[in-house]
Design brief:
Layout lengths: L6 E6 L5 H10 L3 H6 E6 L6 H6 L2 E4 L15 E4 L10 H5 L3 E3 L6 H17 L1 H8 L9 H4 L7 E5 L3 H12 L3 E5 L12 E3 L4 H7 L2 E4 L13 H6 L5 E4 L8 H10 L4 E4 L19 E3 L10 H17 L17
Parallel strand pairs: 1-2, 1-3, 3-4, 4-5, 6-7, 6-9, 7-8, 9-10, 10-11, 11-12
Helix pairs in contact: 1-12, 5-8
């Protein structure tokens, strides 16, 4: 009886990261993994040419450009994150290596983070927290400032896994949901009106809350600039959980200072970390979080589920069944 040939998988992830133990723990429960996989587990800084030359599959958060020349057997890279723009070198894009990401892992925590920000603005809780820090009891203006999410229009820019989760929660709150998607023919039950990218101005003019859920690509960099901010309602709240460079930050600061829009919830900025002297820190109509919207105690388990589904398809030779395959032309 011939011995089963195992595929070589390099898992390049720092042990101190929670995903490390969760991911490996989930994978090691899988019978096929135990039978067919031989792991090499190293922190990224210890990855060397010899290890790379043996790997048929690499699982990593970031794939440095200098690794690629040593990857003579590499057929597939499973990224542990959704945003992988920093790993997409021209050489990798030109190769026939399959790229898959962890899109969908963040959908639940980011959607909840978005609604945390929306509810803070709607109920004036950001103002309450600031008053609490100064032991200030001040109800002036609350009647005029608070509102309800129920019946409001939610604009979702980008309807991938995260955008779809935001839209679903918007419907649960009784909101009208308008979304922009690259392929507007794809049906989404949580969206009342689905628009192509060319109709982004229509979404901006109608929405009281605009949530940016797009990946960072050459097409989306600077997507929201002065023109787009001036198209938004004066009572609108802009929430960015995408990437800082999707928004022209200088134009956003002006918009917030001059009242083109009512406020902004920002989990991402340009640059990161945001410098201490940036005006956004001191604005009463801004809620900032330090790029933590995707943090979840379940990250490694969910990433493991995506990887295992792809691994089963890969080992079966059914590459068409793999999920989260990166479109190299689109960059995500």
């Amino acid at each position: 009886m011939s011995k089963t040939v195992k595929i070589q998988i390099l898992f390049a992830c720092s042990p101190g990261w929670r995903i490390h133990d969760q991911f490996l723990g989930r994978c090691r429960q899988d019978d096929l993994v135990r039978e067919r996989v031989e792991w090499t587990i190293l922190p990224p800084e210890e990855v060397n040419p010899e290890v790379l030359s043996r790997a048929e599959v690499v699982v990593c958060g970031h794939f440095p450009r200098e690794w690629l020349p040593h990857c003579t057997r590499l057929r597939w890279i499973q990224f542990l994150g959704a945003g992988i723009e920093g790993s997409l070198s021209p050489e990798l894009l030109a190769s026939d290596i399959i790229l898959t990401n962890a899109s969908g892992v963040h959908a639940v925590p980011i959607a909840e983070h978005v609604f945390g920000m929306m509810l803070m603005f709607a109920r004036g809780l950001h103002r309450c927290v600031r008053q609490q820090m100064h032991a200030e009891w001040n109800r002036d203006g609350f009647r005029e400032q608070v509102r309800e999410l129920y019946g409001a229009t939610l604009g979702v820019v980008g309807l991938g896994a995260i955008g779809a989760a935001v839209a679903e929660r918007g419907k649960a709150f009784g909101m009208r949901v308008v979304a922009v998607r690259r392929n507007p023919q794809q049906y989404s039950p949580s969206v009342d009106l689905l628009l192509p990218p060319a109709q982004l101005p229509d979404l901006l003019r109608e929405s009281e809350y605009v949530v940016l859920c797009v990946p960072l690509t050459p097409e989306t960099q600077g997507l929201i600039g002065e023109r787009e901010l001036r198209q938004m309602r004066r009572d609108a709240i802009l929430i960015n959980i995408a990437r800082g460079r999707v928004v022209d930050q200088s134009a956003l600061i002006r918009a917030l200072q001059e009242g083109w829009i009512a406020g902004a919830g920002l989990d991402v900025t340009d640059p990161e970390p945001l410098p201490p002297d940036n005006p956004l820190w001191q604005m009463p109509n801004v809620i900032l979080s330090p790029h933590v919207s995707g943090v979840t105690p379940h990250y490694g388990i969910r990433a493991g589920e995506i990887f295992l589904r792809n691994l089963h398809a890969y080992l079966a030779g059914d590459l068409s069944a793999m999920i989260n395959v990166v479109d190299k032309r689109a960059g995500y």
